[in-house]
User: What shape does this take?
Amino acid sequence: MTDVVVDWIAHHAKTTPRKTATIDLASGRRHSYADMHDRVGRIADFLREAGVGRGDRVGLIALNSTDILDIIFATWRIGAVHLALNFRLTPSELAFIVGDAAPKLIFVDQAFAALKDALAPQNPDLRWVELDGIGGETELETAIAAARPVSAMIDQSPADQAMLMYSSGTTGRPKGVVISHGMVMAAVINEAINFEADRNTVSYAVMPLFHIGAMMGFSVPAMFFGATAVVERTFEPGAMIEAITSKDYGVTHFLALPAIYNAMRMHPTCEKADFSRIVIAAGGAEPMPEPMLRWWYEHGVPIIEVYGMTETTGLACCLLREDVPHRIGSAGKPALFTEMKIMKSETEEAAPGEQGEIWMRGANVTPEYWRRPEANAEAFVDGWLKSGDIGIMDEEGYVTIEDRIKDMYISGGENVYPAEVESVLYMLPEVAEAAVIGVPDSKWGETGCAVVVLKPDASLDLETVRHHCKGHLAAYKHPTRLEVRSELPRNATGKILKFVLRDELA
Assistant: This one.
């Protein structure tokens, strides 16, 4: 890798100006690399005139559109940092992140005007710029029309920060993951090798682009290769099947959750759909059920399982196409720029086949959390990131993920940390003790089950719990099941044994 940051869009605008860079399905917009270079330059000029400079954070709250890619590359062109914001969070959850990241400016989709109205009074000096994601007459498009394009990227090094993405901790307080340009470059090369991506790739994004998985699988890498990124605004199974099998688009690469694969499988058009142009169909963000993997394999789509984190800029290890189906159930081998080891303890490495915590280091692994020295001290040992995930590595180097970050569960692709939900439950006057676990769900993979011990003579129902959670937690964090117990299982030291609850309630 080079010791400078290269402007991918500017390069492709010179070498392949008429090549289609992006296709926005909601609006029907198609932009060549020459078009995208112009839009990126104009947004960069607007940001610069708005006072955004090197190292400043530029926030984005928006449904999927190709505008997101334009804004990311415009932010990078002037040396600023892309701040990805999860629109599924409540105003109070976003307020902490915005306060911690201190962005200079936030682009906001008109669909989230209520979020803007809730956050703006707390951030009087913060500038908000509206867009609609479909190219309508908005402040963004007006600014693009009036700007003078910035054609050259300012000098930057691979160590300079490119993105700030927040990942919740087990205490519920979000942590900002620092992602550098060098990390992005390493992640792109990892994907080129493991996912057979090149200039002929046509990526399809349906998962929200505020996620590292959706962003790096495969929209941002497509821009490196001079390939084409197709972006879907929201998920609908029939529309996704139509898009990824369309000859007009020629999709070759996409990433999806188990819930998305399952919804497509159940759609009436799936059985007769032609998936033959698909090179890589990746499955990530949560474990893929083996029966589903085998169903898709039998229907001509070998799903490639991926393991990674925001902290690893997405991909850390994955299967290869030739590993399917005989290696189904494994997360594959570590990627080129990712070292991985299994640790029995802080000082002892596990033997092949032995369970332990997954530790990682490499060019795609974050060096630190944003302004969180205590989190850094806890998470890093001599440059190794302690994932908190439990795994096994066999003698051939294949990794199997055994368990996930402590008691975290994943609902519809979103990480849910029980401690955060439990703290909200304890606000209820009826609750004496609370424990939240993830339980299997046919639609979302997992959802939350609240197990509570009530105070004497108190009563509580699920409707009351869910109503209470509104305003405190994003909807995907709300428990969908309530269990009332006389006591919670505990060990000799008094710690709640959540694995016992999971076994009983699964």
Summary: The two ends are 47 Å apart (CA to CA). The chain has two domains: 8-393, 409-505. The first strand starts at residue 20 and ends at 24. Residues 409-505 form a domain with the GMP Synthetase; Chain A, domain 3 fold (CATH 3.30.300.30).
